[in-house]
Specification:
The structure is a single chain. The protein is α/β, with parallel strands linked by helices and 178 residues long. The protein has one domain: 3-Layer(aba) Sandwich (Rossmann fold), CATH 3.40.50.150. Helix content is 31%, strand content 29%. The protein has six helices and seven strands, in the order βαβαββαβαααββ. The longest helix has 14 residues. The radius of gyration is 16 Å and the shape is globular. The relative contact order is 0.15.
Length: 178
Amino acid sequence: MDIRPDDAILDLGAGTGRNACLMRRYLSEQGRIVGLDIGPEMLAQAQRRCRRFANVTFEKQRVEEPLPYEEEFDKVFISFVLHGFIQEDRLRIIANARRALRPGGHFLILDYNEFDLARSPWPVRFAFRRIECPLASDFVRRDWRAILQEQGFGDFQAHRYYFGYVRLLAARKMLLAE
C-alpha cells in the first residue's frame, strides 16, 4: 500500500479493525486512520483492538451512502466489501472514495480478481456457490480497471494472490487535466 508515516487513511468496511491496526504500524503520530462499519459487534471489536492508538478511530456509517469527507485522505482502502453490493451501490462507494481522496490519492481494493467462474477449478466454483454471496459472481465478471477509469481513476497497479483469484488493485485519483 506504500503507506507513508503521515498518511490519512479511510478504511471502508473496517470490520474488526484488524487491517486498521496493521496499517497503523506504518504511521507516525501525524498519520491517522478512520474506519467505517455498520455492525455494532464489528465496531466494538475494532475499538477494542485499536484502543491504544489515538490516531485510529471508528465510526458507524454505511459506505454506500454519501460520506462527509471531501479531499481529506491520502488513501482509501476497502477489503472484501465491494463484491457484496449491487453494482449501483458499488459505484456509489467508488464515488465516495474519489470524493474523500485528495488529488493524486490512492484507492486500494483488496477483493476478488476478475475471472471466468465457469472455467475455474471445481473448488473455486464450489466455494462461490456454497460460501460466497451471489453478488460475488457478478463482481468477478466485471472489468474493474475500466469501471474505475470511468470514475476518474488511473495509474493502476495490481498485486495478485491465491493463484490470481484475489487482488490488491491500486488506482490513483486523476486530476481533471490528466
